[in-house]
């Protein structure tokens, strides 16, 4: 540190989809309600891949990804509340909210206008240090594994949040589309929530493991013929896929008042006609990650029920290999990068 600045060692791509190389930069002196976190582990989400390759057109270069961080508080700004230096925390997709908006005042910081993302317009957690606002650095319960917990702060809360927002009941029948980083956590949450859970997977080798995660049944997500047995049965379909599926046909698997809920970023518009939704009073929705309070509830739920991501650990210096592993659909089920800067 010099002049109060903090030297950060990171990994960055300098162009869309370019090789990720060591990259050093300086954070300005810490101020306000900021927190600096010494990164220990950071999960690799499909959204890091989409940002790195600039699929969504919002990436800036040099690009430092990483928004499933676990580490220790390194420094606190003078207005940072509720945390201590050395404490273990986690950080997800959001890194700053205006605390005085109607949404934040109501507890919905995740819906607050002008939210800043951890990897949009700033550098993320594939680094030795990452900075965020204190409200978004959540204390990690002692019962959770430091190595495994990172993916809960994005993948986990993204699929836990809809259970809270849409009042999913233990008697509900829920289908999860795509058993990857998000999907394998959704199966665990829904099973412990009490639901009847069906995993839709395109990978035959995942079927048995999907059951171990909590699925009661499995279906082939690429074979619409196999869905016929499920027509009219689901209260919710939770999609975590980043591809286009036959949505019109999937909607036929919903029962009355059923909901098609997409958290995965499918590339094309979803072609649904109002008449498909009308007669059974169906809903179509989406949601971002959850608010800090819902995230804290999720962490407690994980601690109580022994829920954890199934991870593969790569050294952060092997990030290019890790990206390729994710892209090739080989991750089982979430890659976590261990910071190896020393
Ligand atoms: N809403 C939010 O705030 C939010 C937060 C985090 C992530 N996301 C988005 O959620 C999506 C999933 O992220 P993730 O990290 O879980 O990705 P992931 O680990 O790559 O999992 C996606 C899964 O989709 C399935 N899939 C892949 N290709 C397929 C195909 N051609 N046909 C059918 N299924 C296919 C695979 O599961 P099977 O092998 O079981 O088929 C794969 O494991 C991404 O779009 C990501 O950007 C959104």
State the end-to-end distance. Answer: 16 Å
CATH architecture of the largest domain: Alpha-Beta Complex
Ions, cofactors and other bound molecules = NADP nicotinamide-adenine-dinucleotide phosphate
User: How is the main sheet built?
Assistant: 7 strands, mixed
Number of strands: 17
Mean pLDDT: 97
- Provide the helix percentage: 10-25%
Mind telling me the CATH superfamily name of the largest domain?
Answer: Medium-chain alcohol dehydrogenases, catalytic domain
- Overall, the morphology is globular
CATH topology of the largest domain: Quinone Oxidoreductase, Chain A, domain 1
What's the order of the H and E elements? EEEHEEEHEEEHHEHEHEEHEHEHEHE
- Estimated structural class: alpha/beta
- Radius of gyration in whole Å, from Cα? 20 Å
Count of DSSP-assigned helices: 10
Low-confidence stretches: none
What count of domains describes the coordinates? 2
- Percent of residues in β-strands: 25-35%
Overall CATH class of the largest domain:
Alpha Beta
